[in-house]
Specification:
The protein has seven helices and 13 strands. By secondary structure, the protein is α+β, with helices and mostly antiparallel strands. The strands form three sheets. Strands 1, 2, 3, 4, 7, 10, 11, 12 and 13 form a nine-stranded mixed beta sheet that branches. Belongs to the pseudouridine synthase TruB family. Type 1 subfamily. One of its GO terms (molecular function) is RNA binding. InterPro entries: PsdUridine_synth_cat_dom_sf, PsdUridine_synth_N, tRNA_psdUridine_synth_TruB. It catalyses: uridine(55) in tRNA = pseudouridine(55) in tRNA.
Length: 229
């Protein structure tokens, strides 16, 4: 059993974030659980890398003195699995918003899909989605997007180490990606659709690894709280 001192001195907690939870909600659930259990007024807690509410999987949460490790953990290589749906796009590049355009998919073969992955390997320039929490002029991009204001978003260098198509059940394409910090899988979905002379958006996303940490060793916030008591 972990003690109050353990959490204050620092812990790295591996959480499997449930679907539709924000990363902030997951941190909060742990924070209140730990505070209640040990009657703590204040202690440090934070996560090392946000996951969108529509994504599931590995969230690293640091407590106490280990919150200093967050920047280092955020910089680690990440692995994701998930699926794209071909033949359509959405403004948010995922299922947060409705389909705004549809495209033909008749010309898309399995070979074309497999070949398309190659152009995304290595160091590439990627434009983050307009529906993202990145800031421009002190305001989050998704705030501009929701107000219908167009803003210019600069591309940034990211690196994709592995991009594997694991299954094709048209119009769905299942994938596994290993990538650097700052990679948006939603943008990858969007750009992948374009590379096929079609469209695509992200329909499922699970973060499976961050550095040497694996989601198979993670627990949900609910299980974490049960284990505390």
């Amino acid at each position: 059993m972990k003690t109050k001192e353990d959490f204050l001195n620092g812990q790295i907690l591996l959480i499997d974030k449930p679907l539709e939870w924000s990363s902030f909600q997951a941190v909060n659930a742990l924070k209140w659980g730990i505070r209640k259990k040990f009657d703590l007024k204040k202690f440090k807690i934070g996560h090392a890398g946000t996951l969108d509410p529509l994504a599931t999987g590995l969230l690293i949460i640091c407590t106490g003195k280990f919150t200093k490790k967050i920047p280092e953990l955020q910089g680690q290589v990440k692995e994701y699995t998930g699926s794209f749906t071909l033949g359509a796009t959405t403004p948010s590049f995922d299922m947060e918003t409705e389909v705004d355009q549809t495209f033909p998919t008749d010309h898309i073969t399995e070979e074309l899909i497999q070949t398309a992955t190659k152009q995304f390997l290595g160091e590439i320039e990627q434009v983050p989605p307009v529906f993202s929490a990145l800031k421009k002029d002190g305001k989050r991009l998704y705030e501009f997007a929701r107000e219908g204001i167009e803003v210019e978003i600069k591309s940034r260098k990211i690196e994709i180490f592995e991009f594997e198509i694991t299954q094709i059940t048209m119009p769905k394409v299942h994938f596994r990606v290993v990538c650097s910090k700052g990679t948006y899988i939603r943008s990858l979905a969007h750009d992948f659709g374009k590379s096929l002379q079609s469209g695509a958006y992200l329909t499922a996303l699970r973060r499976t690894k961050i550095g040497d940490f694996n989601v198979i060793n993670a627990v949900t916030p609910m299980v974490f709280k049960e284990n505390l008591s």
